[in-house]
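sorry for the late reply, my laptop died twice this morning and i had to redo everyting from scratch. anyway the thing you sent over, i finally got around to it. pasting the sequence first so we're on the same page, its 541 residues, then the predicted structure underneath. double check i copied it right bc i was rushing
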Amino acid sequence: MLCQAASQMAVKVVVLDPLANCPASSLAYDHMVGSFDDSATVQEFAKRCGVLTVEIEHVDVATLEKLEQQGVDCQPKAATVRIIQDKYLQKVHFSRHGIPLPEFLQIDDLEGAKKAGDLFGYPLMIKSRRLAYDGRGNAVAKSEKELLSAVIILGGFDRGLYVEKWAPFVKELAVIVARGRDNSISCYPVVETIHKENICHIVKAPADVPWKIKKLATDVAYKAVESLEGAGVFAVELFLTSDGQILLNEVAPRPHNSGHHTIESCYTSQYEQHLRAVVGLPLGDPSMKTPAAIMYNILGEDEGESGFHLAHKLIGRALNLPGASVHWYDKSDMRKQRKMGHITIVGPSLGIVEARLNSMLNEEGSGNLSAVAPRVGIIMGSDSDLPVMKDAAKILNMFDVPHEVRIVSAHRTPEMMFSYASSAWERGVQIIIAGAGGAAHLPGMVASLTPLPVIGVPVRGSSLDGMDSLLSIVQMPRGVPVATVAINNATNAGLLAVRMLGVGDSDLLARMSQYQEDTRDEVLRKAEKLQSVGWESYLNP
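ok and here's the structure:
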C-alpha cells in the first residue's frame, strides 16, 4: 500500500523482504530479497536508498544506528525504533515523559511475578518485551496459580518479560499521528479498534465517544509522538477506562492497521502521509472526507484453498455494498487468523456503515443495501399537522433530498421521541424539521436530545391562531437552539433545510441558486403581464 501511494507521487520505493514473491514485489520500483535482521544485507540495501524507513519495527536496530553514523538518512530515527521495539523500554520512556500508562514492572523470575501479582492484583497481563505483535507475546494470569503457565507460554523469563496492571478499559482507541522532518505534527481522527483473538479485526472511524474523550486521546497521542525522534507515521494505541481516563497501550513507528481506512476515508492516506513525512514534503490534510468509515480485516478462516474460497466469497458480498472497497494483499499462503486483506466501507453515518458491514457478514442476503438513507427527518406530533408539514416534503422531493416523515409525539409517545432524536444522526439524518401546534414542545425537546440542527414549524391550532406555537418554539432557553419559520410555513422549513445541506453539497447549492433564478423569472413574467394587459384583465383572464 505504501508502493501504491508512492506511484502517485513520483517516489520510487525499493523494498527489502525475505520472500521473493512478497506482496510489494510486484509494485515496488525494485525488490531486494533478504532478511531485515541481517546486518550485511541491510547495509547493502541502504546503498540503494535516499531515505531508509521501516514497515516493521522488528529490525536490526544496531545496524540502523551504524548506518546513521555513516550518514544514511533513517526515518524515523534508530533511537526511536530501539525504544519502540522493546515494549518495556517503551513504557519507561513514555512514563518519563508524563504519558498516562497502566502501571508496569519488569520481572526476572517467578518470585518477581508473584510480587507483581500481589502489587497489581489479578487478572495480570504478562508481556514479552520484544517481537510481540498481533496478540503474540501476551498472556493473562487470572490468579497466582496461572503465573507459571503464562510465563511458559511466552517462552520463559530468559526471553525478557514484564507485567502490566490490568487496564479495565471499556474501549480500545487509536490515533494515527504524522511527524514531519520539520517536527510538525498532525493527528488523524480518533478511531475505535475491535480485536478478535488479540488481532485487530474492525476499526470504526470516527470513534463513537464524546468530544472531550477524543480531545484527550489526541492530546495523549500528540505528546507521545512529540517525545520521539524522526519523521514518519506513528500509530498510538490507547485504552479508554470506565472513569474516562486515556491510557497509552503502545506505539508503532509506521503505518498501521488502525489507519487502513484512511485510504478511502481521509484526504491524505496514512501511506501518502508517511511518504510525505520521510522525504520532507509538507504533511497532508488528515481529516475525513466522508462522515463515517469501517475497516474490516479479512482474516484467514481456514488453511489453504478452503481459506481462499471463504475469503473470496466474503469479497464477493463486499462488492455488492455501496461505499465498499476491497484490498487484497496477494499473500501466497493462507493460514487461520492471518491478515489476508481488508475491506473499507464508507457512508453517511456510522450506523449505516455498520449495517452494511453486518449485511456483508450475513451470508443469507444483503437486505435493502441500495436504500438511500434519509438526510432530513420530518416529524410532527399528530397527523392533524400533516396537511401543513407535507409542504416541507414537497420541497425536499423537488430537490431530490432523501427524507422520512414520521409522527412522533412529545406528550403521547415520549419514549419514541427520545429514541428518534437520540438515534437520528447515527442513521445519517442531518437535519430535523419538527412541526407542532399548541404547546409545541416537540421541536425544543428534540433539539435538547440531538446535536443535529432542528427547524421548528409552528402549526396553527384551533385557538390563538398559532401564536402560542410560534412563541413556544422561539422561547427556548440558551444552549438549546431551534430555528423557526412563519406559522404554517413548512415550505420555508424545507427550503432552509436544503440551504443548510447545500453548504457541503455543491449540487444542492447549484439547484438552490437555480430555484432562486426561476422564482425571480416567474415574478418578472407576472410583472410584464400585468403591465401589458392591465390589472382588470390580469384578474379576469
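The radius of gyration is 29 Å.
thats about all i looked at so far, will dig more tmrw
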